[in-house]
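INFO batch 0412 | record 1 of 1 | parsing
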Amino acid sequence: MEVIEKLRNIRKEKKKELELRVNTNIGTKEKHILVCHGTGCTSSKSPKIIENFRKIIEEKGLENVRVIQTGCFGLCAKGPIVIIRPENTFYAGVTPEDCKEIIQSHIVEGKTVERLLCKDIDGKTVQRLDELTFYKKQKRIALQNCGKIDPENIEEYIAFDGYKALEKVLLEMTPNEVIEEIEKSGLRGRGGAGFPTGKKWRLTSEVEGKQKYVVCNADEGDPGAFMDRSILEGDPHCVIEAMMIAGYAIGANQGYIYVRAEYPIAVERFSTAIKQAREYGLLGKNILGTKFSFDIDIRLGAGAFVCGEETALLESIEGKRGQPRVKPPYPANSGLWGKPTLINNVETYSNITKIILNGADWYASIGTQNSKGTKVFALGGNVVNVGLVEVPMGTTLREIVYDIGGGIPNNREFKAAQTGGPSGGCIPKEHLDTPIDYESLKQIGSMMGSGGLIVMDDTKCMVNLAKFYLSFTVDESCGKCTPCRIGTKRMLELLEKITQGEGSVEDLEKLEELAIGIPKTAICGLGQSAPNPVLSTFKYFREEYLEHVKYKECKTGE
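INFO prediction complete | emitting tokens
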């Protein structure tokens, strides 16, 4: 019980210290300078900003001023971002050279650096983070701690109720009660298919076996997607804690996270978090003085898109070539090394601790009837506020693009949005008011996917869009089954012929025939969904295909 007492003491001591991160009305002389140290801002020299701030503070001998690296704040288009607490001042596009002025003016003299304040979508200058339109319609659950805590400091995570859900589960709940809570919450897998999370946990728990595994799928391969990466970079402990809860619920003692080596910051942060959790007695034997034991190891992937498919991922963890298995059996029955295995992705796990602490009813009250909770999207393309957003299920595409995303740059018109990456479909402007949930997207020929959301203006050619995604799929196909290996290649050849002005109406017929047939015969989700961009652009933009074959030109000029 020493570990439990330690956790409670940290929460008591640190919570008061960190109150200024959440309470803007707190009366204190202490200042916290939060600097985004996610991949996006890191590429724009945020590590140098952190270094300069600390150096200047030391040179000036300033007390009660801390500089904290955080994960992504979400508004990537305005990075590097610096937030000063408790006043919540939002500085955008900060450079290492700005640090001296911020310290002197804001910290020493108490004057805001006006030129670094962010402009909202209406052009007005905004001083505080919570005043920005970008955040007003969001609800951060999965991203709750991102931009709030130092992801490399376990005590900051603990202070914000970290490992409290694990404590509740191990000391107050049976494995069955945990599964019942997840079932009742209505949480569905955030990796793409939307399978009920509680049902998956239940199926795995009911399979007999002394050895079971919990796996986290962090192989985020969709072009433009960075949701899982940002969670691992900004709040790695929430995934560790959730995997442990899952292990307790299904009867597993070993977890693996499969993450692509192309995410070096995420890998480093998660490795640090695992090490810290072990040092604090939160991973290993007899956790929190109970009979429950659990540990986690990292397995690095080489960036193969097909390894996002759960059985191909398992093959890769086992040291084999990443190719999907024929199902059944499903991983719940025969997964890693033939043992019962539970697989969820990063975003799915990031909701677990909040459900346990706040209750299934709380979570189920958010979203729509069949799509509960929130969804994180990587919003990109032709939109003003490129970044990471988290909204309640049922939020319309229009709200995401215009109210949160700030609309289309350069006064262009919205043409379409692609959801679900290469596996998804396009949403045209007539469906801008479609609620973003699993069923609504499926009805219009798209899908949720893992959360990539690419916005396109009226200068984009939809035939080229289909060709881009199909080219990606062809490159990423593992080649195991003929429909995917050969069929998608033939589709790409037809698209190349069409976009080069050499296509015919017969080629369009062949393209559509292949697009309809491949999903019926491919063995895994990658092949089955590969034709989706073609099918959805055929459905909504068939006239563009006809222009390419009849007039040998593209009206967009692409």
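INFO post-check: The radius of gyration is 24 Å.
INFO record closed
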